[in-house]
Amino acid sequence: MTQVLGRPTTLAVEGMVATPHYLASVAGLRALQSGGNAVDAAVAANAVLTVVYPHMCALGGDAFFLIWEPGEGRLHALNGSGRSPAAASIDALTAAGHTTMPQRGALAVTVPGTVHAWETVLDRFGTFGLSDLLQPAIAYAERGFPVSPGLHAAIAQARPLLEQQDAAARQFLPGGKVPAVGDVLRQPDLAASLRLIAGRGADAFYKGAIAQSIVDSLREHGGLMTLDDMAVHRSDWVEPLRTTYRGVELVELPPNTQGVTALQMANIVEGFDVAGLGYGSAELIHRCVEAKKLAFVDRDRYITDPERVPIPIERLIAKEYAAELRQRIDPDRAWTPEADSPGGGDTVYLCVVDRNGMAVSLIQSIFQGFGSGLVADGTGIVLNNRGASFTLDPDAANRLEPSKRPMHTLIPAMLLRDGQPWVVLGTMGGHGQAQTHLQLLLNLVDFGMEPQAAIEAPRWVSGRGTPDDPAHVLRIEPGFGAATIERLRAMGHEARATEPFSSLMGHAQMIQVDRERGILLGAADPRADGYALGW
């Protein structure tokens, strides 16, 4: 490995927040210092991210929470993802001339779940309410914030998409131009929406003028969503899924997320001599990539809304099944399954641990960059394209159906030791999320890295990012070295080097809890604009 550690791990004793944007980290830290708990801080930070990282997340997206409640000594998980409109069906889309699921536009939008998820977790665990926690986000939307390099690049790349709708162009291309790095971007319509939600709660989003604007904007562009679809939305408390990896417990969310996939990969790789193969070796990377391919076959076959389709979860995460899959891996040659589906990775992940030991792992997304490409007129709210995950194949588990949750790539995670949180972690990255979870797990457990080193270590991701990618591309950061990349190619991998610290590898954050010394160790990914802040 030739990459050099760029930042120290952040150390603190009272509380820690790690997000992909420094303004969000500051908002979360201030919530903690004002007497709020980890749930309060997570919501405050997430709200700021919907303003300063609008290409990655928005009020028009979905959210998933994994919460450690120290009083009860147990984990709670919230599925805050939305469903397809009641009028959505394969027949409806084929009648409209579609042969595949639209990837952008109004037909790709599912009911946004984020605002309801915020209110749900605050009602159960929060110290403050939305009226207090949304104030930093309101201020940044109203008064503006300096455009970061990442946001500038995202707007420039998405300009053709944003120009297709007047509301989106007005918001993100002021004066018809891409804002330069450091330009102050103001979003007054979004500030007004946040203020309404702060005053009236989730009902202001799902049953009021905001809901009407969302429905009207989607209908104008051929969408199927109705006010009833918005009004009946609910978040669901679900039971987390678990496996062990060398004595450490890995906890993920159940379907409709791909948490099962992360657990499968960990189970398969546990059977290899990871440390003996050596960090960054082609032999280790090869085995991990092959484990990913096998787990993704199951993911694409089974993972969808469990309320609509039965999923054999216990078999998929069983150690015995992992042993069967492991036997299929050729140690010297890459396997070529069906071509991966292209997938975006525009999501935010953040984590918080407070002075009382409450820990929050939170992920929130609009799926691909700027989601559907649509902004609900007059609200400033970017609408997701999570419905793009559905398929129009009537025999597939994840087929489009009315009022159904699609397969989600979003997976917040935790590692437990002796039944207590050890590391709170996660990443953006679409189909790469489970792969990054595995790499972080190995870095921490097998190679003993501290948090910032584990995140900054070079990464790989297997799978197509865009439709133009080769069927089985393996993106790999150059820190692994040219010889490793060449060896992987000789094994049959379509290995392509990226630039160092490539955003294609996701934006990971983590907080480690050191109970012996009574400290927190935080890390944020230099592939984004974030920091881990504590005190």
UniProtKB/TrEMBL annotation:
Residues binding L-glutamate, per UniProt: G430
GO molecular-function terms, A-Z: glutathione hydrolase activity; leukotriene C4 gamma-glutamyl transferase activity
Superkingdom: Bacteria
Record: active site: T347
GO biological process, alphabetically ordered: glutathione biosynthetic process; glutathione catabolic process
Gene3D superfamilies cross-referenced by the UniProt entry: 1.10.246.130, 3.60.20.40
PANTHER family: GAMMA-GLUTAMYLTRANSPEPTIDASE (AFU_ORTHOLOGUE AFUA_4G13580)
Name listed for the protein in its UniProt record: Glutathione hydrolase proenzyme
Organism name: Sphaerobacter thermophilus (strain ATCC 49802 / DSM 20745 / KCCM 41009 / NCIMB 13125 / S 6022)
